[in-house]
Every structure is written in structure tokens, then in C-alpha cells.
Known about the structure:
Elements: E1 6-8, E2 12-18, E3 21-29, H1 33-43, E4 50-57, E5 60-64, H2 74-83, E6 89-96, H3 103-120, E7 124-126, E8 130-137, H4 142-151, E9 155-162, E10 165-173, H5 177-187, E11 193-196
Antiparallel strand pairs: 1-7, 2-3, 3-6, 4-5, 4-6, 8-10, 8-11, 9-10
Helix pairs in contact: 2-3, 4-5
Amino acid sequence: MTGGRKRLAGIATTEQLIRKSRFIGVCGPIESAEDAARFVEDHGAEGCRHVAFAWKLDDRVRFDDAGEPGGTAGRPILAALEHFELDRSIVVVSRFFGGTKLGTGGLARAYGGTAMTVLQDAPTAAIVTMVERIIEGGFEAADALHRQVDELDGEKLDERWTPNGVRLHVRLPAENASALLRGVREITRGQGLCREASV
Length: 199
């Protein structure tokens, strides 16, 4: 997928044995830091001492080495997320020690490699930025305004009738906002209104 931000669209898992240590990777979508904490709790391997993770959520990132030497687990997992340019996504890698020490370089390659493997074939989806608009038009324009919103993949959040006509509060993809403004002007012959909804 090229252009625009993307996120994981489902949960994927992988498991690999590296010099007798077992690495279990799980990745999935998140919408908040609370989601991320629950994901780690739900998908870290039961009874595992080392459950490392990394996540990215808009401008925030967080990673944890889970008791491994600094920089050998969480950061390589984060690097895998960044490699695939994923946002609003998390990867958890659990390691069961197999008796053979991997060294810091070996640990970093194993954690990072497990994250890369689980992300490789994980389902992704585009992140669509949404905006909200207030549109108004006379009674005679109401049907056409409703159709315009539907055609631009909009969602009606609120509809009110005023003495002058209809007032709609809508949410739609940001890339369609200009088309909505043009449509409202054309439908209402310049008499209607299309403005940003105040938060």
C-alpha cells in the first residue's frame, strides 16, 4: 500500500525457535494507550518472563524491553513498525529462554526479526482522516443535500429543521471536504452554508 498512513486491520501471530529460545510475536490495531495495555496483557504469552512490546499511536510511541538488556527488545520491535510505516498499531514479542544466551546483538536481531515476520503478512488498511461540517440549505435543497453527503461517503450525525430549511451536521473523509463545499454552493445556488463544525 502506498501513499497515506496505514494501520493493522487485524491480529496476526508468528512463532519461531532461535537457538532454542522460543519467540512468539503478535500484532494488532489499537486506538488508545489503554487499548495497548490491554493488548499486551491479552497477547503476552502466559507464564513468560520477557514480554516486550512497541506501539505507535499518532505522535506517540512507546516500547518496553521487558527485562532484557536495554535496546535489545522494544526498540527493534519499534523499528519493525516504522519499517512498515504503521500507525495505531502494536507488536508484542514474548521470549521463552531455551538455555543458550543470544548476546545483545542476537537478542536485537531475534526480537526485531520476529516483529518483522509477524508484520510481513499482517492485514493493513488505510487510515482515513475524517472532518465534520455543518451544512444548511432551503427546504427545496434538502433531498439534494442528503444525496450529496451520501455520494461523498459522509455520515449524518445530526439533522434539524429550521424556519429557513435544513441544517445537517455531517462527518466525511477530509479529502471530500472541498467537493462538499462545491456541491452545497451548486445545490443552493450560493445561498447555502458549509462550515467547519466547532468542536
